[in-house]
């Protein structure tokens, strides 16, 4: 026969199980309500631009980006209310069964956080995704100017419904930062292009000025060549005139020399004639009379 102490010791594990069973159920419920931080993967088709959210892996050829989703405030309140109700029931059962287990069970619940809401599987996300895909199908029936703002608004609404307010706000902050960086890069590129264009304009201006200076120097060289040719022509003309003058002077000298020689020759002949006449003997006047002064001389007594 079992002693009362042994019997009580044998029944104590069952009693502990019965006492802790509500606490374990509460912990299971709290663990079900409180999960790890939800991760949503945004899949973007590089070819078509279609965007989809999933908690798994993206298809081949799609760009994947993990986004942390935070629950909505009403969902957090609902989970906290369920958690508090389960915790209160567990505490009541623990106080009814064994007062000492209440202090051991309470820290197990206080270490958990409320489970986050899965925005990627919410009806609002599905509706926004359907509206975005329908708008993409109607792209060919709209003009680019009309389609662009509608597409941007539908994509923003889909991101907000599928990512949650906090993740969407973080996404918008990142997008705003990217936009500012893009504007800064575009401004820097514009400044670089303006500087390059200014340098090209300056280069073309200097080239034009250099061409004009080359033309001016060419005109000056041509003018100098023309002036040099004119000076040489005038020099040749003066040389030709000088030579002609010299030739005329020489011709005049030759003519004067010729006249002088002819005169000297006539004078010589005249002198020779006189000398011959003077050396000839005087003849008698019996002969026939002769004309001229020679005849008269000969006929004189």
UniProtKB/TrEMBL annotation:
Pfam families tied to this protein: DUF4124 (PF13511)
Region (Disordered): 167-186, 195-301
Highest taxon listed in the record's lineage: Bacteria
Domain DUF4124 per the UniProt entry, residue ranges: 29-75
Biased composition, class Basic and acidic residues, residue ranges: 168-186, 195-279
InterPro entries: DUF4124
Protein name as it appears in the record: DUF4124 domain-containing protein
Originating organism: Acidovorax soli
């Amino acid at each position: 026969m079992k002693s009362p102490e042994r019997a009580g010791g044998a029944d104590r594990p069952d009693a502990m199980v019965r006492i802790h069973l509500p606490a374990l159920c509460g912990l299971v419920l709290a663990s079900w309500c409180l999960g790890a931080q939800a991760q949503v993967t945004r899949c973007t088709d590089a070819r078509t631009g279609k965007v989809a959210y999933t908690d798994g892996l993206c298809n081949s050829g799609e760009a994947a980006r993990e986004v942390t989703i935070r629950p909505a405030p009403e969902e957090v309140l609902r989970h906290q209310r369920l958690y508090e109700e389960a915790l209160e029931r567990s505490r009541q059962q623990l106080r009814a069964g064994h007062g000492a287990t209440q202090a051991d069970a309470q820290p197990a619940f206080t270490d958990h956080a409320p489970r986050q809401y899965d925005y990627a599987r919410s009806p609002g996300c599905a509706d926004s995704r359907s509206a975005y895909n329908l708008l993409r199908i109607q792209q060919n029936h709209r003009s680019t100017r009309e389609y662009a703002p509608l597409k941007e608004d539908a994509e923003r609404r889909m991101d907000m419904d599928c990512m949650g307010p906090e993740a969407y706000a973080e996404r918008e902050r990142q997008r705003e930062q990217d936009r500012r960086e893009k504007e800064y890069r575009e401004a820097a590129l514009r400044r670089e292009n303006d500087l390059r264009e200014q340098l090209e304009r300056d280069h073309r201006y200097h080239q034009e000025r250099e061409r004009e200076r080359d033309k001016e120097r060419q005109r000056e060289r041509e003018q100098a060549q023309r002036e040099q040719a004119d000076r040489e022509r005038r020099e040749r003309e003066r040389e030709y005139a000088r030579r002609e003058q010299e030739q005329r002077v020489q011709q005049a000298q030759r003519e004067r020399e010729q006249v002088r020689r002819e005169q000297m020759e006539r004078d010589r002949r005249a002198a020779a004639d006189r000398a011959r006449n003077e050396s000839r003997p005087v003849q008698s006047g019996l002969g026939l009379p002769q004309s001229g002064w020679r005849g008269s001389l000969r006929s004189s007594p």
